[in-house]
Specification:
Helix 8 links the parallel strand 4 and strand 5. The protein has two domains: 38 residues; 210 residues, Glutaredoxin (3-Layer(aba) Sandwich), CATH 3.40.30.10. The strands form three sheets. Strands 5-4-3-8-9 form a five-stranded mixed beta sheet. A two-stranded antiparallel ribbon has the order 1-2. Strands 6-7 form a two-stranded antiparallel sheet. The chain starts with a helix and ends with a helix. 54% of the residues lie in helices and 15% in strands. The radius of gyration is 22 Å and the shape is globular. By secondary structure, the chain is an alpha/beta fold.
Length: 254
Amino acid sequence: MNYKILTAFVLSGFMMSCGGGKQAKQVEQSLDTEKVENEAVNTLKSKLEERKSTFSLKADEDTKKVYKEGIESVEKSGIVTSAKQVGDKAPEFTLNNALGEPVSLSEYLKKGKVVLTWYRGNWCPYCNLTLHALQEELSNFKANGANLIALTPELPDQSITTKEKHELQFEVLSDIGNTVAKEYGIVFKLTDEVTKRYNMAFELNKHNGDESNELPLAATYIISQNGEIEYAFLDADYRNRAEPTELTKFLEKK
């Protein structure tokens, strides 16, 4: 037990024995507040917000303008509403994992539900934070009868680097050319300015093995065993992601 909590627990008991019920209740309320605050700090959202703040402080105004216009371009494209939605049939796929082994959605659905998520690449700090958070929540997905699969447009050599770096214990599949992502309707083309900066900073074309300059939304779906999409997280802003604990809560209710 945490030392602070243990101390408060003992103090609470002492005050109760001395007739200090009011004080004990205040201690308990304080602990509850602290617990909620700690949970808030540990959410994926809080870590993504921290990353956003760091970028805002360090990036020059021109870079911030270019990236903001890139997000606005995705918003205007209407991709969030035209992508696969709740109630749609999830397109079947078979892709190779980091070891070159074929993995199919249908085979995984025989085992249970599937949490299907996309990440842009190991060059994306928001994606890396998300993968780490998903790994931490993985046991809860499995406890609720679901397996996790992550798709990326990166070449296999790049995805295995990601898998090893984050010690991921779920499938990481290379969706080269965004073939599967296109079937789900979540692929968009980067603006010329964003493309230029991504290639200068991260060598995007080298990571993906093509010059399409296309990326998938950082989408997340929960797919039932009958192949129907039960949950969909779709956002034009790549800095926003599905909260892993919220995915678990959704699985618990179903």
